Amino acid sequence: AGCGVVRLIIPKCIETCVASYLLEQTIFSIENDEEQKMKFNKEEMDKALEKLKAIAIGMGWGKGRDNEKILEYILHTKKIPCIIDADGLNTLSQMDLSILQKTKCKVILTPHLKEFERLSKISIERVKENPIKIAETFASKYHVILLLKGTITIVTNGIETYLIKRGCPGMATAGSGDVLSGILVGMLGYCEANTKIVAAASYLAGMAGELAQEKYTDISMKASDTIEMIPEAIKKIRKL
Questions:
Q1: CA–CA dist 2, 10 (Å, integer)
Q2: Which of 71, 130, 146, 213 is the most buried (most CB within 10 A)?
């Protein structure tokens, strides 16, 4: 999606397993506990996040005992855009959300409806009744950019709101949300963290998914097929 360097921060115990799959990315491994989850260590965390322009946290994270400590430390100390997704959202939903009102980070939350229900304590049924208003109110209250996934994706900071009508049924497969977060953190490596850029990342992901579905069909496409079509989507967007 355009960033210069990607750093994957992982538990040390899986470093050798993961390394063989990475050609262009770099790895920083964190000490793990006996359950093979990341342990919080301030010095290690500072080194892991050194010189980063943006971070995405939560995808494949699991339920580590130190997850809350790690997330809290990042939010309190780092002045970078921070995308929280997947298990990062599940971790945040167990914390006092007032931390979002005091963070140094520019926080972007990317929940689907069930994750947003856990986070906001508002039922999916209620959200569906007035999703734009509820999303805007939540984003404004907690000073975040909220990307609420759905048939129509809502991107809002409470003042500025975009509705993204891109995507396709073939994207309803494991990993598609991770692809979106990857595109978003890639763009934030060289773009300002604002509502329009978050909306643009969602648009790019949706268009790439549509192109993947054209090539592989809605039945057979996988999340990695969306990644394959990112360059083609960028070409089309540049012509708009």
A1: 22
A2: 146
